[in-house]
Specification:
Strand content: 15-25%
Length: 573
Amino acid sequence: MSHLMQPSIILLREGTDTSQGKAHLISNINACQAVVDCIKTTLGPRGMDKLIQTDKGVTISNDGATIVKLLDIVHPAAQILVDIAKSQDSEVGDGTTSVVLLAGSFLNEVKPLIEDGLHPQVIIKNFRAACQMCMEKIKSIAVNIERKDPKERQELLERCAGTSLNSKLVSANKDFFAKMVVDAVLSLDQDLLDIDSIGIKKVLGGSLTDSFLVQGVAFKKTFSYAGFEQQPKSFKSPKIVILNVELELKAERDNAEVRITDPDKYQSIVDAEWEIIYDKLNKIVATGAQIVLSRLAIGDLATQFFADRGIFCAGRVANDDLVRLTLACGGAVQTSVNNITPEVLGSCGYFEEKQVGEERYNLFQQCPKARSSTIVIRGGAEQFMAEAERSLHDSIMIVRRALKNPAVVGGGGAIEMELSKMLREHSRTIFGKGQLVIQAFAKALEVIPRQVAENAGFDSTEIMNKLRHKHAKGGQWFGVDIVNDDVCDTFETFVWEPSLVKLNSIMGATEAACLILSVDETVRNPRSGGGDAGRPGVGAGGAGAMMNSGLVRSAMGKGPGGPGAGRGRGTRT
């Protein structure tokens, strides 16, 4: 009886929430499935868009990474899916929705196995083995599209860019934008391919087809002083000086005091500052530059001074625009006006100040060292232009990756079906519990073509049966045909995706699934709180089940739920 008298050991602070065991793992899988359910309808060329309202405004998007970031998910397991979407976006730029769907599908397919008592480590071991097989298969069947002929290479890259734009709001104009994106990427330094050298500007008004590419730099007219109207607005082959120098008279401090012993010297003190700034301006004029740009302010005195001498000037130019200008026009930013030599001056073939919509833009074109470009997007609504910018960013990343790794695979779910077929055949050659896990992994891969078909309004069961039949007969590039409600050889129809996108998405989804499966207990300190997930009043009218289960912070307002709606502990669904 002595063991009944032992006192209980209090290890954790009062109020600490602990969850463990099989029920906890199932709960985490359900949380991840809630995230998947929220964004799965955005996949593919006919995917739907999400409208998300936050304190910063309204966003309309079908980009997976953008959506999960704006949802402000607080569930610790579901947050892993947010992280892999961000990683996919930063690494390859596309496939963010696919990677979340794959991770959720992997977990959903092994959920019955976990409920039946299969140990998570057995699943993790076989998941990693299946992932490695998929990596080797993709690398073995990927087609190298590297071409020496510039025209042929341009066409191949445009097809990759067009595939990326298929699922975006701008898909109706994908041919128009695909050429623009490829031209912009090819203008970069081909060794670095720094996408920060591609500027994207948005101008309200007009239609999407009014958008244009500047092979150089374009930026909005900066704040100007009196005298600016008298400056010339266009030059041919001008010299450009780029400064980080302030060219204006400083305002006097309040209650400033200057003591002099000789009244005759008063005027010399007043004139000293004028002489300093005139000395700076004369030195700039002496360089022979016709365009003066500065990161700091250029005041009214300097503006009129330059206007009288036929020189264009602009102050308070954004730093990123100046950096791109040095890449396109040459030259270097100067922190002093002393000893400016011709070597540090930039040049371009043609400069003009042009009216674009309601704004005026400074365009630097025909740059001799053009390693930068600017895309000016036109549109009728801010949200539409913002989504167009995100779409172009994804497409730019795809073209950049295709240049660095010129291997592509068929899109439209073709590669996933081929991998699924390969894994199913392999599973029949092994024995034991691993066979069930490999089969679950193979079935989970089919979520991509199935969801693409469902989002297009097709009969997904019929489409999947046709795809399985084609792949069994050796048609490795057969995927969903969105145009004809059927299946087609996506390689022949030029629906291509860089193999790196698929490698990253499958690897990232597998690692995320393994990480979630390896967690068997969550301990929440009462002071950590878990954000707003456990707070009453979290909105019930924004992300459906996600809101009701307390997975999402109140990013969309309280909604119709009102006080008390959406209670949750954060770790349980």
